[in-house]
Amino acid sequence: MTDDEPTGTRHTLRGEHLRLAYDRRQVVDDLSIDIPTGGVTMIIGPNGCGKSTLLRALARLLTPVGGTVYLDGRDIGTVPNREVATVLGILPQSPVAPDGITVTDLVSRGRYPHQGWFRKWNAEDDDAVAEALAVTSTGELADRPVDQLSGGQRQRVWIAMALAQRTDLLLLDEPTTYLDLANQVELLDLLTDLNRRSGTTIAVVLHDLNLACRYADHLVAMRAGQIMAEGKPSEIVTPEMIKEVFRLDADVLRDPVSGTPMIVPIGRHHVAAPTATITDEVENTA
């Protein structure tokens, strides 16, 4: 590797034969996954399928009942906490901020893994925090207590903290929660920019199928604790796959903007209209 290569190409993350459970309730059984290095991976699936559980295990927030998560080929459970935190960042679902903490203080906590006995706060840390606030449009909130913000504002602040960490691996669980559509697109654009600029390996659990297809280099579809399909969205997203994973009848069209698959649900009260109908109506009124 040369010095010019993106730093995000240095680290690998995979899970082998994972069994994951809460108490005695098994959620994932014998699942293996390799997060493509330097790409954007989107993990989709119905509620309760194990998406968030899998992400928690990959981030070492949940210890597997069986199997192993490997960070750079090492059992992540044996890697010191600080070392993991300087390589891998995680934004879990519904994080909780300490009472009264300000936005700047919370975002600054993303820099704590980089501190140490002989490494004190410096200009690089200031730059990382300032950049994270800027790209998430939270700079104007810098002095406000986090607990006084709206849901969407809080979510952007948590994302800023994750970005301030400046890790080569970034895992985000439903980061678009509480965000309106414009801010969802802005966030996913931001993550794509980060990936393209720095080579950061990014894995995101996302509910919106069309946004997942649009932004994913690699798509992972889960159901009942298993991976049902994975690969490029254009190669794996079909009506049959949507039916198998989501129990949903749908057409899969070509997104006119991105060229990626676009899922159009077919509800019980909707029947696909013949494609010639609109043309026929125009001709009949001519």
UniProtKB/TrEMBL annotation:
Domain ABC transporter: 13-249
Highest taxon, organism lineage: Bacteria
Gene Ontology cellular component annotations, sorted alphabetically: plasma membrane
PROSITE patterns membership: ABC_TRANSPORTER_1 (PS00211), ABC_TRANSPORTER_2 (PS50893)
Gene3D superfamilies assigned to the protein according to its UniProt record, in alphabetical order: P-loop containing nucleotide triphosphate hydrolases (3.40.50.300)
Topology in the lipid bilayer: Peripheral membrane protein
GO function term, MF aspect, one: ATP hydrolysis activity
GO biological process, one term: iron ion transport
Keyword list, A-Z: ATP-binding, Cell membrane, Ion transport, Iron, Iron transport, Membrane, Nucleotide-binding, Transport
Subcellular location: Cell membrane
Alphabetized Pfam families for the sequence: ABC_tran (PF00005)
InterPro entries: AAA+_ATPase (IPR003593), ABC_transporter-like_ATP-bd (IPR003439), ABC_transporter-like_CS (IPR017871), P-loop_NTPase (IPR027417), Siderophore_ABC-ATPase (IPR051535)
Identification of the protein by name: Iron complex transport system ATP-binding protein
